Amino acid sequence: MDYLYDLNTFIPATIAAAAGLVVLMQSVYKVKINTIFGVTVFSLVVALLFALRDLFGPVGTSFYDMVAYGGTAAFGTLLVITGTLFCVLISRDYLEAIDHHYGEVYAMILFATTGMVGLAVSNDLIMLFVGLETMSICLYVLAGLIKEEKTGAESALKYFLLGAFSTGFLLYGIALIYGATGSTNYADITALTDISPLFMAGSALLLVGFFFKISAVPFHMWTPDVYQGTPTTLTAYFATASKAATFVALILVMSRMMPEIEGVGWTQAISVIAIITMILGNLIALVQDNVKRMLAYSSIAHAGYLLVGLAAGTADGYTGVLYYLFAYTVMNIGAFGVIAFYERNQALDFTDVNNYAGLGYKQPVMAVLLSVFLFSLAGIPPFVGFLAKYYVFAAAVNAGHITLAVVGVLTTAASVYYYLRVMVFMYFREPHKEFDLVNPGAIFKYALIVLCVLTVYYGVEPVFPMGSLIELLTSYYTETGPAGMAGP
Amino acid sequence: MESYIPIIVLLGIALVLALLLMSLSRLLGPFRPNTNKLNPYESGMDPVGQARERYSIGFYLVAMEFIIFDLEVVFLFPWAVKFTELGFGTFVAMVIFIIILFIGLFYTLKKGTIYFELKPSISNRT
What range defines the domain where residue B86 resides? Predict the structure, then answer.
């Protein structure tokens, strides 16, 4: 149990936390905001490199079994850091345009990232809780960034109250599980042979806490309001990085903590919630005129698709969910990013879909990017969204959950309507009034182009003969593990 | 049971002493009551009143600073008790912990949390 070795397994989060402290001090001393932005991006790139290294590294636990590294946890770390990096890259110009460009925003993002990584690598219920809270508290602050406006204050307050409420559920669940088993460690809990009603109650409450955080119906009420009131690039951060971290934690809990005893698993509950979430999320999204609310309901629907993979509960299912999370992170940040670009123009209220009329010919690159991301979100073939949906639904079918897959495919078909609606406005309607769009700026534009390239590349990946992402993910759930070492 | 007898004796003495002192002061001292003097907390806050009162946000910021020190002590005490057994790694960890707390404290002080009257400069435009 070497101290530095432990730290090495947790290095991305450590870097993010240290950079957060540096950024905080810099913002007190009124360092130029561009320097702060540079420090943030640099630290995240370094953390990303370490996360990439860990992707192929050994698998195990450190910090007295509190933290898992390698395999699923490493991929979760990578997802979180990637999401954060792209959100930060598109945040600078946007926050400047809405006049809320403070150094503390970056500090908060970095601290939240620390929490998310902690959540995604948790191997103990206490670690899970600490990671979740570190993440949530920073996100509550970020949600209220535009506090002068009613929507901003509402979003912060609503997020805080419901978040605290759901944390209560989660914590009570942890307490009951501890009461029933005498341990908070995943390895100890999974070794149980007889299950008491207390444990069942505890695991149910734990699951409710998770449902709140991933905004599954009927625990989704906060999502649209929070997503609407938060600055758009930070909404992208909420919708992708935090959701990815929570889902990875859920996978770890399901695959490592829940004892493999008949009738103990969460499959039944998750199937039901997945069906309701897919149907309701997509149906309500159909009637939204506000683009951010539309994407909020779409993110609820995507939580439903992700739950389908979890309900399968097989290695295929977990692999599918991880792949889906990657796809979702890439395309959702892209979609929010382009919307943030339009919002930077003060000419019209660009959260209203009616004002997207005629935008397709003004900044053609941006319009094409938005189209690609929306096509991908809708799950149309040459893009990554399609492959992700394919893996998740195929896993559900193989595990015998035909109903789930059928509902998933049908609701996906319905979702095409609201994604394509934006494009119809952009390309086939005449603009209401004349205005010029601002220049997107190099960093902003290239960040989005990189996301677009990822969306397309991973959509056609199986064509290329090189080692693919899905093979790497599958290797996490086989006996040998990624580096030929015995995986869990 | 026998070990509790001293406690009962102590309670008895406390009761007798309190009664003695109160009755002595009533018998020997002058007694000119008014509303303020008869309050449970003399010249303190009103014991009965509206629950919805507005406080200056400054109080919360001070409370936040209190939590910083409070947390520090909560973790420092158990660590200090076992200091010699825990070794160098824990010492480094504790120093890092205190540095992080100090940065938090420093941040709040720099933002002007303790300058109540002078309108704390919450605006953090850089």
Answer: 57-110
